[in-house]
Amino acid sequence: MTIREDLRSKKFVSSYSGGKDSILAMYTAIKAGLAPMELLTVHNKRAIKVWFHGTGDGMSAKISKSLELPHYMAEAPSATFMRDYWRTLAESKARGAEVCVYGDTCVSDFSRWSTQSCEKAGLIPFYPLIGMSHTQVVYEFIESGFSAVIAAINTDTTPEYFLGRELNAETVQTLEKEGIDVCGEAGEFHTFVYDGPIFKSRVDFAVKDKFIRGKTVSLVFE
Fold first, then answer.
1. Which of 112, 144, 152, 158 counts the most CB atoms within 10 A of its CB?
2. CA distances (Å), origin 18, targets 45, 64, 79
């Protein structure tokens, strides 16, 4: 994709979920000449055992160390979440960030809200994956050398045998045969990325538990 010249060399905070899209967006931004400064994760207070994509809180230090980036959390959901998220972005701005990079693959209400939040905080929102097809995104991720497992599934849409599987070409082909969006764009599944070209070392993990909330089954790692 074409990157605006005015973004090159700018420092960015990466909206980080632990999954493939946020990691690929960060990698794409780095390749385009932007400089990563820190990670920002929205943490679900109602499911405190897991992040959005199924990784346990104890993984934060491992991921931060391997990516060599400090990691910050924005608590959600809460009555003050919108205000707190703006404040968290403004704190990144005060530390020197100029851009916030998001892994959205299409324009949505959430991406529009993220854009408004960034603008309110004085940051430039950047969505490097928008414009790519879902198939392009997932194969770009795999072919770039990243490693990930399927860490959470929606049992209404995704058979449980996908839980814990490596996200590789074989798995993608199986998802396609099952009629499941290969990016899990509607929440069919979420991934946890543990290695790849921007990791200094593999993030070691083991499955500690399963966390069930409604139709979502997540692996909890340690």
1. 152
2. 17, 11, 25
Q: What is the pTM of this model?
A: 0.93
What residue spans of the chain are helical by DSSP H? 20-31, 60-67, 81-94, 109-121, 134-143, 169-177
Closest by CA to 105, choosing from 21, 15, 217, is: 21
Residues of the chain with pLDDT under 70: 1-3, 44-57, 76-79
Query: Which residues on adjacent β-strands are paired with residue 193?
Result: 148
Provide the residue type at 165 as one letter.
R
pLDDT at 42: 78
Fold of 134-221: putative n-type atp pyrophosphatase, domain 2 (3.90.1490)
* pLDDT value, residue 212: 86
Handedness of CA 57, 58, 62, 65 (dihedral sign): positive
Q: Which positions ≥6 away from 97 have C-beta within 8 Å?
A: 11, 12, 13, 37, 38, 123
Superfamily of domain 9-126: HUPs (3.40.50.620)
Q: Report yes or no: 25 and 14 within 8 Å, Cβ to Cβ.
A: yes
Q: List the end-to-end C-alpha distance of the chain, in Å, as a whole number.
A: 36
In angstroms, the CA 40 to CA 26 distance is 12
Give the C-alpha distances (Å, rounded to integers) separating 60 from 6, 56, 79, 173. 32, 8, 25, 31
